[in-house]
């Protein structure tokens, strides 16, 4: 790529950029934790304490949704405003928020700042950074606004306008940013969206917001610009096909596994079962809203949910996880290697070996972290391994669903989950910026080849 040829320092700039992004997110988390720790941020008027404040700030900024206390019950209007702002910054990205401030102040964005923005949102052409960023922010706020208006109209049937507006705005932003925070605790603390599990309007509006946020802004831009799928880039076609396939397969598999489960889909009518199954398939893609009790899923249902949570959404989106295209590249690599092929190709294009190796590296890293962390959680907390793995995959995939209850975890487990949420939102991005985009250093020498028995 020639993206940084203007300075000729791409390899030296990658590490500082990755550190800048990581430290920026860390700074937002610490500032948010300090604000949430104030007595004014709690509904009771007493400080929530450093641990709850830091955990909530981490979860909000990393758009995860895991919490140690019910959001509505614990936080005052001031605290909820802080959480909503952190969700917005974490979802749209720190540099998106920073660039919004520059646009508002009519400040000129320097080349170095454009460099960071380009890396954080995945733009390859430096000339398009500012234009793309403005367009992205306008569209994001427009979608959130439409979603908030529709949800407000729905909530007006039950609540006065100020409360309906509050519920509409909060849940629209939380859904689009794939955060999974809700403020329905006044109905049933900790129940998430289960109070509206039979409401198609609420479930489908939230699903649309989550899906749009999880597709990624680059995909949006291309789909709106090129109405004919044949003209879409390979990346956009892979995202659209993979996202649709995962949503459909998740719905079908969840119906199959939970259809007669009296604690999940069993009591529903057929249309309600289909709606709940679709919502579960959607929310596993890092949204984190729960329309059914996750702890009541069958063992097979939990295993499938863990698989879908690990995949997540698409690159350059508000979602986390392994990412859809990374997953499909891994599948294509395995399929081609089983057939004896050494190259991976799709839509008459060849995927470079570097991309394949990068996908394998991220996959192995996430799997290793999730499993090893689950061992620690299981060993230190009163939960079995499946629920511990559910928790760690949910954290590293920035999903926000829990099967055992995050508040039940031990203190070491809570700290570990915070680290996983941070890595899930920031770590993969900084690895991509700091290492995967670097040109590999030339090898000065190689050892002689050796033969090994593999398999």
Provide the residue-averaged pLDDT. Answer: 85
Portion in beta strands: under 5%
- Rg is 22 Å
Strand numbers in spatial order across the main sheet: 1-2
Entry keywords:
single chain; mainly alpha; two-stranded antiparallel ribbon; 17 helices; globular
General description of the model:
This protein is an all-alpha fold and 455 residues long. The chain has one domain. It contains 17 helices and two strands. It has helices spanning 10-36, 50-61, 71-74, 77-92, 94-105, 111-121, 129-155, 161-176, 200-215, 217-225, 234-258, 270-283, 299-311, 324-338, 353-380, 385-396, 411-436, and strands at residues 344-346, 349-351. Strands 1-2 form a two-stranded antiparallel ribbon. Strand 1 and strand 2 (349-351) form a beta hairpin. Helix 5 packs across helix 6 (111-121) and helix 16 (385-396) crosses helix 17 (411-436). The longest helix is centred in the last third of the chain and has 28 residues, at 353-380. The radius of gyration is 22 Å and the shape is globular.
Topology at a glance:
Elements lengths: L9 H27 L13 H12 L9 H4 L2 H16 L1 H12 L5 H11 L7 H27 L5 H16 L23 H16 L1 H9 L8 H25 L11 H14 L15 H13 L12 H15 L5 E3 L2 E3 L1 H28 L4 H12 L14 H26 L19
Antiparallel strand pairs: 1-2
């Amino acid at each position: 790529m020639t993206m940084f040829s203007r300075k000729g320092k791409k390899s030296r700039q990658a590490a500082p950029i990755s550190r800048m992004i990581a430290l920026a997110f860390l700074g937002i988390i610490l500032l948010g934790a300090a604000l949430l720790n104030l007595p004014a941020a709690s509904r009771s008027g007493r400080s929530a304490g450093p641990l709850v404040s830091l955990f909530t700030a981490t979860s909000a900024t990393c758009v995860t949704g895991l919490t140690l206390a019910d959001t509505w019950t614990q936080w005052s209007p001031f605290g909820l405003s802080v959480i909503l702002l952190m969700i917005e910054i974490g979802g749209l990205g720190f540099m998106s928020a920073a660039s919004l401030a520059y646009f508002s102040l009519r400040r000129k964005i320097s080349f170095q700042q454009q460099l960071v923005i380009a890396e954080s949102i995945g733009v390859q052409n430096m000339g398009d950074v500012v234009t793309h960023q403005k367009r992205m922010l306008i569209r994001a706020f427009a979608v959130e606004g439409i979603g908030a208006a529709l949800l407000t109209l729905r909530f007006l049937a039950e609540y006065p306008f100020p409360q309906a507006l509050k519920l509409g705005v909060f849940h629209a932003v939380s859904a689009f940013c794939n955060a999974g925070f809700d403020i329905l605790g006044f109905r049933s603390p900790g129940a998430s969206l289960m109070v509206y599990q039979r409401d198609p309007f609420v479930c489908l509006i939230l699903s649309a917001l989550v899906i749009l946020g999880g597709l990624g802004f680059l995909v949006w831009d291309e789909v709106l610009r090129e109405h004919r799928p044949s003209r879409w880039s390979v990346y956009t076609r892979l995202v659209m096909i993979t996202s649709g396939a995962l949503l459909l397969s998740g719905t079908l598999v969840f119906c199959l596994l939970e259809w007669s489960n009296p604690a999940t889909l069993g009591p529903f009518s057929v249309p309600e079962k289909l709606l709940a199954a679709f919502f579960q398939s959607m929310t596993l893609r890092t949204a984190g809203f729960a329309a059914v009790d996750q702890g009541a899923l069958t063992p097979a249902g939990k295993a499938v949910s863990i698989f879908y949570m690990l995949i997540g959404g698409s690159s350059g989106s508000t979602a986390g996880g392994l990412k859809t295209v990374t997953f499909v590249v891994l599948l294509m690599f395995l399929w081609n290697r089983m057939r004896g092929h050494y190259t991976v190709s799709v839509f008459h294009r060849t995927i470079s070996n570097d991309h394949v190796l990068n996908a394998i590296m991220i996959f192995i890293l996430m799997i290793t972290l999730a499993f090893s962390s689950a061992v620690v959680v299981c060993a230190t907390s009163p939960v079995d391994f499946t629920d511990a793995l559910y928790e760690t995959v949910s954290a590293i995939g920035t999903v926000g669903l829990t099967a055992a209850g995050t508040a039940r975890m031990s203190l070491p487990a809570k700290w570990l989950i915070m680290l996983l949420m941070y890595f899930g939102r920031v770590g993969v991005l900084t690895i991509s910026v700091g290492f995967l985009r670097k040109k590999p250093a030339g090898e000065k020498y190689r050892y002689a080849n050796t033969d090994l028995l593999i398999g």
